[in-house]
Design goal:
By secondary structure, this protein is α+β, with helices and mostly antiparallel strands. It has a domain at 27-45 and 72-161. The protein contains five helices and five strands; from the N terminus they run ββαβββαααα. It has helices at residues 32-43, 92-95, 100-108, 120-129, 138-161, and strands spanning 8-10, 26-30, 51-53, 73-79, 83-91. The strands form two sheets. Strands 2-5-4 form a three-stranded antiparallel beta sheet. Strands 1-3 form a two-stranded parallel sheet. It is elongated, with a radius of gyration of 17 Å. The chain starts with 7 loop residues before the first strand and ends with a helix. The mean pLDDT is 86.
Length: 162
């Protein structure tokens, strides 16, 4: 990596908007930031590999929209080794966060779900399906997504360090 002591590749391919994403179905988007980092790792002969950083289940783009005038859709955000995964519901203002139980069931029934013991977030998703935890709100579901994603990324990075 030349004369640099450390280079960190930080990017996000996560969509800025969920417009056009189908409701009540699993939707995948390639994790291109991970693919880019892997390409760099596999195609440079550096003795100091680059660091990796992404924006867990968030777009790197900053929105100028005032949240008071938004009608956000409820979604369960997730990731696997190669994809961002979204299970999108309907508008939170008109239909509430109770719909996370059905959305979680859709994810748990898919081949993408890592199982209830993988991370705190995975356990919460599983418990939500069974009605053992509350529906929460956007902050809870970001925490659910982030704990799963960060656990997974650490595991991915450990595979490169061994």
């Amino acid at each position: 990596m030349g004369n640099w002591r450390k280079v960190i590749v930080s990017s996000s391919y996560y969509p800025k908007s969920q417009a056009g994403i189908p409701q009540h179905a699993v939707h995948t988007i390639p994790r291109e930031e991970w693919n880019l980092w892997q390409h760099i790792m596999e195609n440079t002969g550096s003795t100091s590999p680059p660091g990796f950083s992404d924006y867990p289940t968030s777009s790197a783009e900053i929105s100028n929209v005032d949240p008071r005038f938004m009608s956000p859709y409820v979604s369960v955000r997730y990731s696997d080794w190669n994809n961002w995964i979204l299970v999108k519901g309907t508008a939170a203002r008109s239909n509430g966060w109770e719909q996370t139980q059905n959305l979680s069931q859709i994810l748990v029934s898919s081949p993408y779900y890592f199982g209830p013991h993988y991370s705190w977030g995975d356990s919460y998703i599983y418990d939500r399906v069974n009605g053992n935890v509350s529906s929460g709100g956007s902050k809870v579901w970001r925490k659910v997504a982030h704990t799963h994603h960060l656990t997974m990324v650490v595991e991915q990075l450990l595979q490169y360090s061994s």
